[in-house]
Amino acid sequence: MNLADLNKVAVAMTANGKGILAADESTGTIKKRFDGIGVENTEDNRRDYRELMFRTAEAMKNCISGVILYDETIWQKAKDGTPLVKVIEQMGAIPGIKVDEGTKPLPNCPGELITAGLDKLPERLPKYYEQGARFAKWRAVIDIAAGIPSYTAIHTNAHALARYAALCQQNQIVPIVEPEVLMDGDHDIDRCYEVTEFVLKETFQQLYIQRVPLEGIVLKPNMAIAGKKSAKKASVQEVAEKTVKMLKACVPGAVPGIAFLSGGQSDEEATAHLDAMNKIGNLPWNLTFSYGRALQAAPQKAWSGKAGNVGAAQAAFNHRAKMNSLAALGKWASNMEKAA
Ligand code: 5MM
Fold first, then answer.
1. Per-residue pLDDT reduced to its tens digit, 44-94
2. Domains recognised in the chain with CATH numbers
3. Distance CA 267, CA 27 (A)
4. What is the pTM of this model?
């Protein structure tokens, strides 16, 4: 492993004012998104939709550091025959690949999940590297509900994340380590904080045991935030302060950058929270975005599967990318949304 080169990529992925576009929806997940806009889930439609984002020059060149791709997309060609990976590279962004194979029920832990995909990973990673991927992503899912999460689920998922990270680095690929504590429940922000703190501490312990140098990873965590069904919604400032406090308590300064998931927050909420954290400032790592839904909801709606709407969809993507880029610098203001 060449750690200096891994570190360069990790630093570029979380460079000032730039963040990651999570476009790695599996075929089932993109179907749900397409159902919402009345688009048929065909290979061509998935290609056309993703190509329109990758060809949005202003957003891609100025605001997006890297794109997380799904296995289908990394091998796909644009309409004019250019490999999509090349389109991304021509925009100055880094192609990455989701390598987990989704979640399965965790035995003896009702309601809890374990992420699959480690078995064939040593054979798959060199092929992705050859195809242009310089980073990868693995998402572990921890749910909060009555009696869960269990230590078994937290430990097993952290162990898998660490094994994945070690394998990636061995193949000169920067691992995005994504332990996602879901915001689907009715828990308040303090319960989310408590669980996420435990999950992050276990994840870094497992990374240490697997001898993963932290200079060559990017962390993709959830924010400390109340569940969607909670009666007690936390303010933007509370989310920002508690998330920064939690990260400072858990994430060593050797980690070059942290790129948040949006997890079901609205576009504007995800931007406002990131901005408020960066306004606090004086942080040991760069804090940026690795959003899926919070970057794509607006362009998806504007596109709605019609070729005539590509310009409008690109304008919507441009706007969200720009707002999040400003938030990554702590320079966003809500009136910029209205002005646009
Ligand atoms: C884009 O969605 C990703 C893939 O999800 P599936 O494996 O369920 O198809 C997802 O992992 C995503 O990268 C992260 O959760 C961040 O996306 P959000 O929408 O939470 O910002």
1. 999 999 999 999 999 999 999 999 999 999 999 999 999 999 999 999 999
2. 3-339 (3.20.20.70)
3. 23
4. 0.98
